[in-house]
Amino acid sequence: MVQQTPSDEHVRVPIEPAEPATIVQQRRDLLKKINMIVPLFRKHEAFLRFMRTFEEVCLQSHENVQLLIVMFLNENSDSKNDIALQQTLSIVNELNARYGGEFIKLSSIRGKFARAKALNYGMAQVETRELLFFVDVDMVWTVDTLHRVRLNTVAGERVYFPIVFSQFDPAITYKMSVVPNHFLINDETGYWRVFGYGIMSAYKGDVEKVPT
Fold it and tell me: If we measure between CA atoms, which residue out of 135, 141, 162 comes closest to residue 151?
């Protein structure tokens, strides 16, 4: 940290260490439970990738995260609907059994897909005082993302809108069907969605206070 004096000279100003109480609170914040709500309609390949990420980042590392999947089905029951639901349910059950808990919950809704409806449906399953993280099935993230969600979301004071990096089609960028490195960020691999506000974390009580 640099402070400028009237004579344009510079002096070093030491930064005071954080108070012990602040450090303890930050450590507690990093342990907060996150309720991740994900709308789902088709996009099976993206869903498989999302679940691989969830397993690696959350389940294998014992992160305090509850995943709520809200799956939309066509109004009329048909074989494709049934197969898609069974495939998704099979993945959920297999991961819950492998890690010995109900870390993932699956709900289904019939009707035309609406992201807001899915988020509201998932939010209704969470207590008012709990932390929400609205995210899409196309997202790839790391454990640092979860840390930022916890530290940047403050009940009654602040919600958090992460800026998303949107990747170009790997078939054009890499001549491949899959991105070899999702976290290679430059002008040739994609662009920042500076004005995108679809991904958000907030406490449920704060979301409920927003006028509709």
Answer: 162
Q: Please give the span between the terminal C-alpha atoms of the chain, in angstroms, as a whole number.
A: 44
Contact 125, 107 (CB under 8 A): yes
Handedness of CA 143, 145, 146, 150 (dihedral sign): positive
Q: Which CATH number fits the domain 31-163, given the four candidates 1.10.150.240, 3.90.550.10, 3.40.1390.30, 3.40.50.20?
A: 3.90.550.10
CA dist., res. 99 & res. 91, Å (int): 12
Which tens digits make up the pLDDT trace of 29-43?
Answer: 567 899 999 999 888
> pLDDT digits over 83-109, tens only?
888 889 999 999 999 998 889 999 988
How far is residue 169's CA from residue 178's CA, in Å, rounded to a whole number? 9
H/E run at residue 131 = strand 131-134
